Amino acid sequence: MNGINLVLASLFILITILVTSLVSQPNRWKVLLVTGLLFYYWLIGDKIIIVLILSGITYVSGCMIHSGKNVVLLSVLLLLVPLLLLKISGAGDHFNNYQLKVDIASNNWGSLFQIIGLSYFTFNGISYLIDIKRRYISPEKNFFFLLLYLTYFPTIFSGPLHRANYLLGQFKNIEVNDHSISRGLRLILWALFKNLVIAQRIFALINRLQHSEIAGGYYLIIGLLFFLYLYCNFSSFIDFFQGVSLIFNIRLKHNFRNRVYFSASRQEFWRGWHTTLNQWFRDYFFFVLSRYDKKGKYLDVILLITFLLIALWHGFSTVMIVWGTLNGLWIVIEKKFEFEKWKYPRVRKVSGVIYHLSIAACLAIIFISPSASFLYNKVFVQAAELPSNFREQYLVSLLVISGSLVIMDYHYAKAKDMRFEDYLDTKRPILRWLIYAKLVIIILIFGLSTGIDNYYIQF
């Protein structure tokens, strides 16, 4: 597991708040830049030089594109090369033993570019250059201001992805006050509850089950657990850094729809899951190719290719190719049957949730399987078997996880479409403090770690 030490993260936040409060507003973005780069350096060391070089390429390319020079394709390729070398080599990947690896010369270039947040840095840089080409924005004149956008520490680790015109304006209005600190800390508390109590307990349970004799149809339990784990883990990590950003009065985009885990179709799921990444592929790949298909004959093919690229972003492996293809086919099939237009919406919703969770559990197993042969042997060859004394052995973990999931879902159901920090604003102060106390007590009793883990940081 990869993550951030809470003590060091808290120390960094406190120092940044203190220094920010001591300088005038026009200079506060410089504090975020310096402290953010120091935090980034603490995580990746001397490899930060590569990030600075790529930032320089982005800055110069943006100016050249704006002046009319046709260097968009070359600039995008230059930004993509390190990420492609990393993905092709399989360095740092979760699926190390089963990669379609390519030996690039005799050097491990993949390890050279094994940089936390490289994917998000690259995608933000590409969107910045393409938006300049499309005349949506003008290039940033101040290199260091652009560097802050590209390396902004709350987003560099796992998103959300942001367009330059969304963040740059907010960097000019940084403000730390009682309200911003309150809203930021409440979101950080919510993130700790989801990560330390739910996600890490599910992760521990998955590990124990994977080393047990579980097989056959029962193996789907691991898929369902991983599906829930991935949501709680990934969304909590983003919640944490959204909270950090809110402290400085910078509002990051919402990356997950509330209760996305209860989606009634795959289309509904993808509209609410890691939305900024999906929107990036939609705007900078799917729509670009779609313009050449004026009659709409090949939209399904373009959709399949888009999901394949999303899968390969996770890693160059046969497992990822299968996972991406199945996701794309699932969407295409749903569109053909127009599942979301069926009659009896209440029945469709309940049956849809069951249908989606069942197939999502199958895809989750594929996502984490070391190979297709391993998965086939586990599910179809070995006899269906649960670990002995399953209930007794895992009862405490299951009770804590189930109870915590109920609490999480209760608040999301009450919030509806509101973000969690906005939802708490609607509560009376006494109710807010009761929620805070409840979450703190649960974390202290049932939390498993002093660090906030992020499964997606490897991508």
From TrEMBL:
InterPro entries: Ac/AlaTfrase_AlgI/DltB (IPR024194), MB_O-acyltransferase (IPR051085), MBOAT_fam (IPR004299). The keyword Nucleus does not apply. Its main location: membrane. It is found in: Cell membrane. It comes from the Bacteria. It is a multi-pass membrane protein. The keyword Transmembrane applies. The chain crosses the membrane at residues 40-59, 71-89, 109-130, 142-161, 187-206, 218-238, 301-332, 353-374, 394-412, 433-452. Keywords: Acyltransferase, Cell membrane, Membrane, Transferase, Transmembrane, Transmembrane helix. Belongs to the membrane-bound acyltransferase family. This is Uncharacterized protein. The lineage of its organism: Bacteria, Pseudomonadati, Bacteroidota, Cytophagia, Cytophagales.
